[in-house]
Amino acid sequence: MGEHKERMLRGELYRDNDPELVSDRRRAQQLCDEFDACPADQREPVLRKLLGRLGAGSWIMPRFQCDYGYLIEIGANSFLNYDAILMDCAPIRIGDDVSIGPRAQLLTALHPMEDHELRRQRWETAAPITIGNNVWFGGGVIVCPGVTVGDDTVVGAGSVVTRDLPSRVFAAGNPCRVIREL
């Protein structure tokens, strides 16, 4: 394993244009394209090649996009609706019994804000996303790097989740905030 992939996996600054990472993303894109073109009854084997873990009874609707795939873990009986984008430069862990609405985005990548030269040279970091059990995201939810969503939480459609959400709440908005307990 090369230096930049090791750095990425440790959550340190790395260059996303590193040849090994580019190759890994190409592999993931090929598998995503294969998945998107498959008949429904042939998708699961492709997902098992692509993802780090796919729990029993879980399924994903096409079009599905990710950066690497191997950093994504999906628990049992979970569902990702159409047009999901999971930028897995850091681990993305989705619990059991999770329902994610169409056009959701789980985004782990971070780029230097203050150091313009590092950004120009394609250095970045990433922070993991963790989604608890029995969570429901409405359509178009965006989850930002480093966020954890607690068990049994519901996030309203179109919300931009920039901070952790506790268990058993309904949250919505941009930025997403807790509306009430459930």
TrEMBL record:
Q: Which residues cross the membrane?
A: none
- For the Maltose/galactoside acetyltransferase domain, which residue ranges apply? 5-56
Q: Which Gene3D superfamilies match?
A: Hexapeptide repeat proteins
Tagged with keyword Repeat = yes
**Which Gene Ontology molecular function entries are recorded, alphabetically?**
galactoside O-acetyltransferase activity
Q: Which domain of life is it from?
A: Bacteria
Name the InterPro entries for this protein: Hexapep, LacA-like, Mac_dom, Trimer_LpxA-like_sf
Is the keyword Transferase in the record?
yes
Query: Which terms are listed as keywords in the entry?
Result: Acyltransferase, Repeat, Transferase
Alphabetical list of Pfam families matching this protein: Hexapep, Mac
Q: What is its EC number?
A: 2.3.1.-
Which family is it part of? Belongs to the transferase hexapeptide repeat family.
Put simply, this protein is called Acetyltransferase
